[in-house]
Design brief:
2 domains, Growth Hormone, Chain: A, 18 helices, mainly alpha, disordered N terminus, about 0% strand, disordered C terminus, globular
Amino acid sequence: MTLKPERAALDGSWRELLGSRYAPIASVLAGGVLLEASNVYLTTSLLPTIVGEIGGAEFYAWTMMTFLLASVVSAMLVSRILTRHGAVRAYVLALGLFAVGSLLCAASPWMSALLFGRAVQGLGGGLLAGLGYALIQRALPERLWARGAALMSAMWGVGNIVGPVVGGLFAQLEAWRLAFVALAVVTALIGVVAVRALPRTARGRSSDPVPWTSLGVLAGGVGAVGIASVVPSGAGTVTALVVGVGLCAWFVRHERRGGNGILPRVTFASGSSLGWVYLTVAVLAFAIGTEAFIPLFGQEVGGLIPFVAGLLGAALSLGWSLTQIFTANATGIRSRRILTAAGPLVVALGLAAYGLLQHEGPSTLVIVLWFITLFVAGAGIGFGFPHLTVAALGSTTDEEEGAKAAAAVNTVFIIASAFSAALAGVLVNIATPDYVGSAQLLLFVFAGITAFGIFIARGASQGIGTRPSTDADERVTA
């Protein structure tokens, strides 16, 4: 007998999730997402040291773009790999790819080899992050879904803190190769726990073939927007952005009309709120694009030392991580809908306030307010994120479609993060070297985008606390 969502959420607790029965499973799922989340920022911290030794400064930005592109591609295949290989084999495959990619990075004699290693890492990382969400449904009881989703999502915030700290430590010791070896060792340890802790789920053939057209079009779109952030400002940037947006529009059109795609079929069904859920996830993830430049503004505008500026950059992630631990406890349908609908507004207010506080020679009070406003912006992400994941999980009664819906949360998150990082780079370059102007342009534009998400989140909130009937699913797939 399946518990109703309201009752299921009421019966679950953090104590049960982190207790002896489910703690090993939770640690494996959270550890995989943490590897993916922290790796991007760890590598960014190491890059100056890496380039100083092996060269390739002209490809500096490509280390992140290559990783994210590979992550997008593999994240799209999560539900199919999970269905075909089962939970344990799928997770071991993902961990193996990530470990091999880390070792390739550690052994890189030149930049092209490092980029290849980053691509392999990205393939494993995209699978790890997607499996973390998809396996919530198969490895945990429904009463723990919201808290499991909050734990997975919190790992992105934790990774944004752990990555720069650990990377900075290894960079200070001039031991960047050892940092990648350490990543491989941690990955292997998680693999040992995964083999013992994860349930042996059923294996079979996926009902859908691999959506090569959607994969190619969307990967091309993300790649084009990524290129826009690395080419010189001007016609090249505009052209790359137009191509990227055009390819993504083509992707959405293909997904709506095609019978086989990356997103679950129910996404575009009449009356379904899943499309609104994904759009809300994208809006919230979009705000994260500011994080890469916040430490730069802290140093150039506020005169902060690198360590404090790094902590400033982590304030948004800290707000996100801490807030959702508490908001995941919301059990009533009304409260969960209010939290989800309010999230984009809180993010927009936090970003706009931080932008308004940018000026040369800020006082100590203003710098403290920087931390507070960024924490508030991050809290807006944490308001509804765990409930959006649960809404995706409960959007269909079909197990494979449910896994695809959950994995697509991570896919949408990565895609939106890549787009936001690219656009952030373009906006910052427009006003450089006026860092106050760059900060205000970036923060106000992103605040406007997230504010528009208020209307999108209202649509997503309608899917919280509801479950489709089997007959409804049959009508969708017919």
